Amino acid sequence: MIRSTVMKTMTSKAVFLDKDGTLIEDVPYNIDPELIQLTRGAIDGLRRLQVHGYRLIVVTNQSGVARGLFSEQDLLPVRNRLERLLSDAGIVLTDFYYCPHYPQAEVGKYAVNCFCRKPQPGMLLRAAQEHNIDLKDSWMVGDILHDMEAGNRAGCRTLLIENHHETEWDLAPIRRPGFIARDLKSAAQIIVDEDQMRMECNSWLTQMSIY
Question: CA gyration radius for the chain?
Fold first, then answer.
């Protein structure tokens, strides 16, 4: 009982961010740090989320590893560049998770049907365990429906950045976004407003239960 109470008080909330097309401009299979540019509204949006207590965590499929286009080691400069761009703006990236797998991979050891490749929720679940994150209070933000499915499967709320990158509009219930925004700045506004409304509703329900 004591352990359960301690864990509850230590849990945090997060916004899980798809990388390519959501956080940075989409340059297919890019590993050149100099080509990395943050998307429109990213700085303003992430600052707002950080101020409101969200941890910021990247979760990205990187099938280029499995396709033999680059190695896992090649992703380190990409991560470093991204962290540097955010740090220069006063933004802290809590962690960076990637899935190198692809079922039809050219590199045999990566040719697996894994639990980490979105739309599976493995990266989010791992992050939640490693950083003690309450998934019910967290969000998955991405620009395709695989991101939404991963977030829904993990138990997060979901928000789709509508930048026309989705080409397969399979709107099965598990793939539907909770909200849609045009960029990370407007996404942050939605997230903060929704959470404020949720807190106010919970407070009202608590007061009603007292009476």
Answer: 18
